[in-house]
Design goal:
Radius of gyration: 27 Å
Keywords: Coiled coil
Shape: rod-shaped
Strand content: under 5%
Structural class: mainly alpha
GO biological process, one term: DNA transposition
Distance between the termini: 78 Å
Order of helices and strands: HHHH
Protein name: Transposase
Pfam family, one: HTH_Tnp_1
Largest sheet: none
CATH architecture of the largest domain: Orthogonal Bundle
Number of helices: 4
Helix content: over 70%
CATH class of the largest domain: Mainly Alpha
Number of domains: 2
GO molecular function, one term: DNA binding
Length: 94
């Protein structure tokens, strides 16, 4: 049967793994969690720390990506409308 662990427990174990005061094997025995799981939690915790310090820059980049996507969508729509208007104008010029 699979054990479920809450976020607080995962954070506690991950922090102990990061401190390296005990080996992963010792932590595995202490908390009855597989070594691979502890290693994964440790990596995720360290990755989360990096994201925390990115701050506004990461948020700004995501907002810029959304803006660029929206602008490309609008350009595509305007191209379609422009071609349609050119065809209709050509009918009136004939």
């Amino acid at each position: 049967m699979r054990k479920g662990f809450n976020a607080e427990f995962k954070a506690k174990v991950a922090l102990e793994a990061i401190k390296e005061e005990k080996t992963i094997a010792e932590l595995s025995s202490k908390y009855e969690v597989h070594r691979t799981q502890i290693t994964d939690w440790r990596k995720r915790a360290l990755g989360g720390v990096k994201e925390t310090f990115k701050g506004k820059q990461g948020k700004v980049n995501k907002e810029n990506e959304k803006l660029v996507d929206e602008l490309y969508r609008q350009i595509g729509q305007l191209k379609v409308e422009n071609e349609w208007l050119k065809k209709k104008a050509a009918l009136f010029d004939s």
